[in-house]
Amino acid sequence: MSDSFFSQPFSRRTALKIGLGAAAAPILASCSGASTSGGGDFTFLSTQFTPVEEKQRFEKILADHVKDVRVSYNSMAVGDFTTQVKTQVSAGKVGIGMVGGLHGDLAPLAENLEDVSDLAGELSGAGIPKELWDLTKLGGTKNAYIPWMQATYVVGVNKAALEHLPSGADVNNLTYDQYLDWAIAGRKATGKPILGFPAGAKGLYHRWFQGFLLPSFTGGLITTFTSSEAVEAWTYMAELWKNMNPASTNYDNLQEPMARGEVLVGWDHVARLVDAPKDKPDDWVMVPAPIGPKGLGYMLVVAGYGVPKGADKKKAATVIKALSKPDTQLEVLRQNAFFPVVEATVPDDLPPAVKLESTAVKATQGASKALISLPPVGLGAKDGEVSQVFKDCFTQICKEGAAPTKVLGAQAKNLQRILDEVKVPCWAPDPVTAGETCTVG
Amino acid sequence: MARARRTRAVPPAYLLIAPSVVFMALLLGWPMVSGILQAFVGPDGVTGAYLQRMNSDPAFWSAVRNTLLLIVVLLPLQFLFALVMAFLLQARPKGHALYFYLWAIPLAVSDLAAGLVWLSIFTDRGYLNSVLETLGLGSVSWLSYENYGSMFVAILIAELWRATSLVLVIVISGMQGIPKDYDEAANVFGASYLQRLRHVWLPLLKPSLQVALILRTILAFQTFAVAQALTGQDFPVLVGETYRWYTALQNPHVASAIAMVVMAVSMVTAVIYLKTLRDSTKGAS
Amino acid sequence: MTSAETSAETSARPAAVPRPQPAVDTAPLRALRRRRALLQVACWVVTAFMVVPVYLIALAAFSSRSALNEFPLRFLPTSFSTETMSTFLSSTGVLAGLINSIMVGLLTLVVSFLIGVPAGYAIARFAFRGHDQYQLFLLFTRALPIVVLSVPLAQLFLSTGVYDTPLAVTLLHSALALPTTILLTSAVFLAVPVDAEEAARIFGCTPVGAFTRVVLPLALPGIAAASIFTFVMSWNEVLGATILTLNQRTLPAQVLSSLSDSPLAFRFAGGFFLIIPAIVFIAVMRRYLLNMWGTTIR
Q: Does A33 touch chain C (CB under 8 A)?
């Protein structure tokens, strides 16, 4: 029986039916699909304001302050963001109107972004600081993006922790040694660590090493990578780590463990601390990062917006200009805790948490010993790998207890290999010599 | 008759599988080739540098160890658990249809959500420690990087919860096709429950079990969301590393190199399973 | 009724038959009851393990944000709040994402079954050359991590104009689901006796008729299982969908990636919301899966 089963004519007919069915399904699909980004005619793709509420608030700012263009705001994780922009530009079909992201998010896209020097010229009167404009050139001469907003990192302190503060220490002018003593005293007094660290998979802890700990101890970053001061810094770090909450390796931000009361003191990005004091602002203070032998190292966080190649530059310029107005920028500060880049008088009626942060940021920038670090310049896609070097140092020295000299020696080779691949000059706080590849010291 | 079918019916078989081959080749052919090439070809031509990079990354070898350890421990437990559940249902307790539904629910939970819920259980101020605290036993840092054992067990339990339903559903659907007469016949001849399990049910379930085993193994190599949610970077697994190299480190070449390892291990396992599968189809028919 | 119980009854019967003596009869009955009770206890234990985590997600999704920061955490919904859930639901694109996701999920089902069921049948019924190689080919496509595939796939879609449509995601999901569909249905067809099909042919069915009227109903449980996997996989897939769409995202692509940066309360709200449609789908399909339970067709 079965030999005539599925004899040729039937199979063909079946195949035909299957083929028709398969063809019909996609036709059905292609005719509709619902828009998930508000249905605007201009897509603003960004890595910022991904959390639900932040996004909702920024969408409202866009609707209120950008009148001429209906913008749909589409925010996603930085990896997906980079992939989206790169694939669209390389395919020559760009559906993105403009992109927004941190300096480190935009730098890898340099080849995919339009030169916006003309727009930069138009905005030259807005009061954006020169060092920010220099950053946007990515080590070249043309502006790859326009500065959008800025932020930095501060230390959030639950007032309950102040009683463990070592005598003679001023919480607004802490040294690294006092910071450590505080952590030890707090741990001894309460029986568990009071200090937290954003060392989770998405945490920004590498910025602590790059912009705070190492510059404060060594005065540099790359050129002093293996110096005796750096060894001292890492030895200090290992000691500090012993007094931190070990669950820190799960913290992507500190505001949640702080709101839960798991962490009383900790350093993080302002946007990742702002929810901690939300319910009880009176219980919290925000202070600058500690001061080291070489000064108060701190890192500037700069976000910018750019125009992908092949996008409607004119429309993008309209949106960018509207977002660069002082009013708009202050509204972003009020709602989402990112500080203006343009000249704007910070008002007094800020929400309590933002006010706390604003004070700490001002104190940091105005400190006499302030030592500014910039995000890596010109590393492009290697930014992540350079950060990984510092993360690996942390893992090996602090978590696995390896000797700092040995680890730094091995990682220095790794770091140099990456720098040789991209051939970039050093960036602040290291001395900048144009045209000379940065050498690990 | 079987021989006649084999010689004559070759064309229909090819016609039936042709759409799937064409579909997969058109859709994934180019992406797979370019993905694979990426691991070995850089801007300066063919290079082994990416494999070297992968090899020298401290996280890579611990990811290999973690992935293999997890799969080797997880799969037998999972199949045992699924079979226990299936035979509990097969005994048809009161409300078995409801039980089956409830036991299949984890299937609906995405791995991201699954990671989230188990994090809320195992985290320092989570539900598990809440219970311990209420009982006066004190908290334990289950997910601390210093405590590899408890970290591993936490991931194991979470994965057991998340993915056993898949095996269960396959086994149950396989059971539906097994004629009751076999079991009844064995019963008449006085076989004990365990004997019937061993000699009647398990052999008849073998095709389903093997499909479940192949799919589960391949999928197990592909998941990382739960491990990442629970332990961040402290318990790296291979696919998580691929993802990290691709997104955070922006190096698709090394990502592809790790993907090659995942693929190679999966395929070796699949070949081994398929050899067993062929033996069983002979046995079953 | 388990066979174990039947055996207990049958072995007890000879003693009971000659003269009904209730006092003697209770021992096997008690054993039966004890076994029943044990069975129920075992089922409860398994149920607790499977359901408690889902309950905890639901609890957290409907708790106020401050309640989630307490310690020890509460196990009862004493601080019921729909605040986070409603904020989550009102965010841009949730409804549209839901529509897209359902569309993609159902279309994926259609495409993968149209292509996959015949292939599964071929594997089960025909011993053709390349049988094993074909199965390896299928697994091969599934063994490469999606993240490596999705970028070249996005380029392919961009150049053919399907990028950023539900169709793009459907195609990817169908490709991901096909190996599962084909292997599962083949396992099911393997279990359907060839005789049944041949009998239908003798009684005058066409091959297609024999397939749809005899084989398909018998294979329904397995097909239902495969459909559950396909739909749920498509429903929860996020890595590929994120790369292949921009303004017409599926729900997980729309919310899951942003949720990972959101406060815990929102992550639970989103996580719980995403579970619901998949649970409904499983409830529907379960009927077909358990279609033949207890029936004696053969």
A: yes
Segments of A264-311 assigned E as strands: 265-269, 284-287, 296-299, 301-306
Contact C290 B100 (CB under 8 A): yes
Residues A210, A236 within the same domain: yes
* B171 has a pLDDT exceeding 50: yes
Per-residue pLDDT of C42-72, as tens digits, reads 999 999 999 999 999 899 889 888 888 888 8
Same domain? For A333 and A384 the reply is no
pLDDT above 70 (res A232): yes
Task: Spell out which residues of chain A touch residue C150, defining contact as CB-CB under 8 Å.
Answer: 83
The answer to the question of residue A441 being in a domain is no
Same domain (yes/no): A216, A354:
no
Answer for the pair A396, B58: CB distance below 8 angstroms, yes or no: yes
Phi and psi at A198, nearest 5°, equal: -80, 70
Which candidate in C1, C2, C3, C279 is best for mutational testing of the B interface (most B CBs within 10 A)?
C3
Q: Which candidate from C69, C201, C208 shows the least CB-CB separation from A14? A: C208
No. of helices (H) and no. of strands (E), chain B:
14, 2
Q: How far is Cα C103 from Cα C167, in angstroms, rounded to an integer?
A: 9
Burial B155-182 (b: 16+ CB within 10 A, else e): bbbbbbbbbbbbbbbbbbbbbbbbeeee
Distance of CA A330 to the CA centre of its chain: 20
* Position A40 confidence tier, pLDDT thresholds 50, 70, 90: confident
CB A54 within 8 A of CB C259: no
* Chain B residues within 8 angstroms (CB to CB) of chain A: 1, 4-5, 8-9, 11-12, 15-16, 18-19, 23, 58, 119, 123-125, 141, 143-146, 228, 231-234, 246-251
Task: Classify domain B39-284 at the CATH superfamily level.
Answer: MetI-like (1.10.3720.10)
Decide if C47 and B90 are in contact by the 8 Å CB cutoff. no
CB contact under 8 A, C107 and A28: yes
For chain C, what are the domain ranges? 3-61, 89-289
Superfamily of structural domain C89-289: MetI-like (1.10.3720.10)
Least confident range of A172-186, B150-164, C253-267: C253-267
pLDDT at A367: 92
Choose between B261 and C68: higher pLDDT.
B261
Please tell me the distance from the alpha carbon of residue B248 to that of residue A295, in angstroms, as a whole number. 31
Domain that holds residue A315: 42-151+301-361
Choose among A3, A262, A382: nearest Cβ to B8: A3
Check CB contact of A249 with chain B, cutoff 8 Å.
Answer: yes
Q: Tokens in use for C60? A: 């957290």
**Cα separation of B246 and A408, whole Å?**
26
H-run or E-run covering C281: helix C264-289
Distance CA B70, CA B39 (A): 26
Tell me: pLDDT of C173 over 90: yes
Per-residue pLDDT of C152-169, as tens digits, reads 898 889 888 888 899 999
Residues A289 and A409 in one domain: yes
| pTM of the full structure | 0.86
Are A205 and A268 contained in the same domain?
Answer: yes
User: Helices then strands (H, E): number in chain A?
Assistant: 16, 12
User: Are both A329 and A233 inside the same structural domain?
Assistant: no
Instruction: Determine, for residues A388 and B249 on separate chains, whether the beta-carbon distance falls below 8 Å.
Output: yes
Report d(CA A210, CA A41) in Å as an integer. 40
| Residue A115 lies inside a defined structural domain of this protein | yes
First-to-final CA distance of chain A: 82
Q: Is the ipTM of this complex over 0.90?
A: no
pLDDT over 50 at C25, yes or no: yes
> In total, how many domains does chain A have?
2
Which chain A residues are closer than 8 Å to B236 by Cβ?
A: none
CATH number at residue A159: 3.40.190.10
